[in-house]
Amino acid sequence: MHKTLPSVKDVVSLLHSKSEKDKALVERAYEAAQKAHEGQKRFSGEPYFIHVYETAKKLAEIGMDAPTVAAGFLHDSVEDKLVTEEAILRDFGEEVLFLVRGVTKLGKLRYQGLERHVESLRKLFIATAQDVRVLIIRLADRLHNAKTLGGHASEEKRKRIAIETLEVFVPLADRLGMGQIRGELEDAAFQYAFPKEYKDVHDLLKKRKALDEGYIKKVHHSLQKRLAESGIKTVRMDERVKHMYSLFQKLKRKQMESDKIYDIVALRLIVPTVADCYAALGVIHNAWRPLPGRIKDYIAVPKPNGYKSLHTTIFTGDGGIAEIQIRTPEMHGESEFGIASHLAYKSGKHKKQSGAIEKDLPWINQILDWQRGVSESDEFLSTLKMDFFSNRVFVFTPKGDVINLPEKSSVVDFAYAIHTDIGNHMSGARVNQKMVSLDTELKNGDIVEIQTRKDAKPSSKWLKCARTTLARKHIRSTITEDGLGFSKLLPRFGK
Predict the structure, then answer these.
(1) 9-193: CATH superfamily
(2) Is position 482 annotated as part of the catalytic site?
(3) CA distance 75 to 67
(4) Strand pairing partners for 395?
(5) For 413-465, what is each residue's pLDDT tens digit?
(6) CATH label, 195-336, candidates 3.90.1150.10, 3.40.710.10, 3.30.460.10, 3.10.150.10
(7) What is the pTM of this model?
(8) Is residue 10 annotated as a catalytic residue, yes or no?
(9) Cβ(355)–Cβ(300) under 8 Å?
(10) Residue from 312, 301, 263 nearest 394 by CA
(11) The one catalytic residue among 27, 46, 61, 79
């Protein structure tokens, strides 16, 4: 074997479980993968084994269990027909085989535009509903492929893999709450997907970073002193720089006006408890004037992917504006590793995820529900992008219940998100106590009250107001049941 191959000890040392059984499982998988891929080369000329090694190492880094790490080593062995499923079962057990088989069934996505691999995406969601670890292995696999894109001789191939990474895998990592992997995927793919935009953002970041870091450092030192005087312990305080692709996306939403973006460099404060988070926020606002409308409580109202933190933006007093994020160590772990930070699998029940899908990933089941009724690829993709991969808004019922919806959702989408009967019998709506039209686009923090009547029914005009698949589905269904016979007049979805 190649004498520069990395040691299995580096992976074993990262395992959360240090049991002899788990260490032995990972070591056997390492040896089997090494033997299976012997002599095999990647497009860059390096041993193929490096790829499966880095995949397994990343899985260990984010806290995945030993069977998942072992499957990371073996995930390409069966697909490339280097090892049989029988051998995996014999040497590594049913659980590892289940995960390897789940990844193998997905096949390699040969990207030729999203339309060409809709079926692969369908398979991915079905596999994820069975065991979310299949998706996590796929993300780790894609991460190393994205990091090594420079080894491809073909510029066209680099670009299409990079675009696929940004359009499919980055949103998936985000929905799992896996901020670290999402950021790494973005950093790896952005420069190959959009080289001109990458250069523009790179130049802007370089310019703003130096300026913003100056403001942040002054706040950093002063805040440390003020927290100590208030008796608030600090677990950690550091600066974080916004990932370039995230910055690019935000610039697009702000019409490329960079002076409206305040979190290019942010101060991240980690304190022991939730109570300390709010106490620290009080200390900050007592010392610096907060920017109106920029205080966000993601602890009381977490993001759909589980992200929790307090965000505030302050005037630094010397002409600068800075964002401060406040969270506990547990919140920080979940923001970095998402569902991987709290996955718990019961021995012998790996196919039944202890309610993980129902509790933490309801969107997977939602995808499975609506994809059964979607036959056309363009409808599937447009729906996927709108309903599940888009940015979200948080909207409240009058009782204070939180409804999260895709950006640009309307009152109609809100009504159907509450209940089908509410949507079907909606007669009007109030947003922030004011009567509004049904096509009103909802914003973060809006309080929405739906008015209903027994004799109220959806009309074809509602389809122009609805943005989500759920709302459109129920509107179409109700109209069809009423025998209005206008199906030919309905606008094509996504158009």
Answers:
(1) Hypothetical protein af1432 (1.10.3210.10)
(2) no
(3) 12
(4) 403
(5) 999 989 999 999 999 999 999 999 999 999 888 899 999 999 999 998 999 99
(6) 3.30.460.10
(7) 0.77
(8) no
(9) no
(10) 301
(11) 79
